Amino acid sequence: MKNVVSKDKSWVYSDIVKDHFFKPRNFLATGKEVKDFKFDGVGEVGSPACGDVMKLWIKVDKDKIVECKWQTFGCASAIASTSILSVIVTENGGMKIGDAMKIRPKDIVERLGGLPLNKIHCSVLGDQALRTAIDYYFKNKKKI
Amino acid sequence: MKKTIYLDHSATTPVDERVKKEMGLYFCEIYGNPSSLHHKGSEVKEAINKKKKKISNIISSEPEEIIFTGSGTESINLAIKGVSRANKNKGKHIITCKIEHHAVLDTCSYLEKEEGFNITYLGVNEYGFSDLEELKKAIQQDTILITISYANNEIGTIQQIKEIAKIAKEKSILFHTDACQAAGFLDINVKNLGVSLMTLNGSKIYAPKGIGILYVKKGVLINSLIQGGGQERGLRSGTENVPFIVAISKALEMVQKEKDKENKRLILLRDYFISEITKKIPDVILNGHPKQRLPNNINVSFLGVEGESILLHLDNYGICASTGSACTSNSLEPSHVLVATNTPVELSHSSIRFSLGRKTTKEEIDYVISILPEIIFSLRKISPIHGGRKK
User: Fold this and answer.
1) Minimal Cα distance from B333: which residue of A?
2) Is the pLDDT of residue A53 over 70?
3) Which positions of A are annotated as active-site residues?
4) Residue whose C-alpha is closest to residue B198's, from B169, B177, B219
5) Is B345 on the interface with A (CB under 8 A)?
6) What is the pLDDT of residues A101-114, one digit of tens each?
7) How far apart are CA B327 and CA B345, in angstroms?
8) Separation CA A133–CA A86 (nearest Å)
9) Given an 8 Å threshold on Cβ–Cβ distance, is B327 in contact with A119?
């Protein structure tokens, strides 16, 4: 894996991580926004005891993910990795579900410009939350 | 460059200007080796003796009972390993506490694994106090050492050291206390406290990093960890770190002399800070005891947000603090202190420690109070956890 260890000397995190941490994209604000959001799939991973919880909602149109919203309890890398994942799956008109299923932590870490080594296994859980949300979508679709 | 607001004095303090000035002479001018017989050596020897005398006056000991080491951690290692090894014919049982610093816990577990000692780790209540009855019950025929810190480094809880010392004395068991966090604020008179060994650390009291003190009461059997030239009564070989010895002596004198006035000021600031943040931010839990805590220690958990995230936002505003969250530890476990005080795990991940210092002002505290709510609210907005429970 390249770019794993951030080269930034003043912070342990890369500029991209800092950018997404301080300015998170596509999150779903607690409260009314969550209630009002109409989604096709939802997934949640992690536990408060472990220090990381991620919840992710998707809207699907013609097998493409057109919207991806999220909430994260966790450290900066957890927040930044969910934020960038929501960008990855919705950019350029939306990612095909089949391709989204293939996203792995290393893809997220690369887009973040690297993460400190000890952060990778615990904070990059977004891909699991995404696959759970896609499973939810498929299960729901069959019922209809 | 934004202004720094340093609220991490329990991690380390800056060197005080007065301390820096006094130690300055001992680099290029008074540089001899105290073991040398010539005048350049003897002037240094004399200086060290004077400093030992000064420190012994402060803590009410004999000058020969003061051993200089390289850090608080080294003093703790010397106390625990040195006493245990020298007294192992009497017994191999040690009593300590679950919320001790890792310097104590890891030294004890080393002795347990490598040298066949048995360790009892006393529990604490929700405030972090050891239970004296539990201590009494834990004492065995073969207990040789009790080691419990004076004040906790994370939540600032001040233990009942005198009572513990009494219990130890009744059973003729040696008692070591780690007073690294306490030395800047509390009485460290060893006669009043009744301790047999006490660890002090320069880097928490405005002396440089890299100097510690171990007080060893006369008559205590103790082995050295380092062999060589036999300095420090043979307990700590190696040429003395003279400038730092001068520094810790000056620093200790300074903080002890000014502590009553400074404590009053800090307690006002501390309680103001705690009351303001609990007023302005809902769902904040104070960790530790409201009163029986170090004058400079504030440790709070913010429900639903993770500590490292808060720290990075604070740092972005120039504010330095620390957290008990797993994310900043190598073990990926949350603070063992908060686990021992039965804090729900998600709250342990959400804890922030602000530790005030001599230069902390009300303006600085007001600045932190003015930006902290916004940080917590923005993180809560994106958090799936609320009110300590998942929705």
Assistant:
1) A50
2) yes
3) 50, 122
4) B177
5) yes
6) 999 999 999 999 99
7) 13
8) 12
9) yes
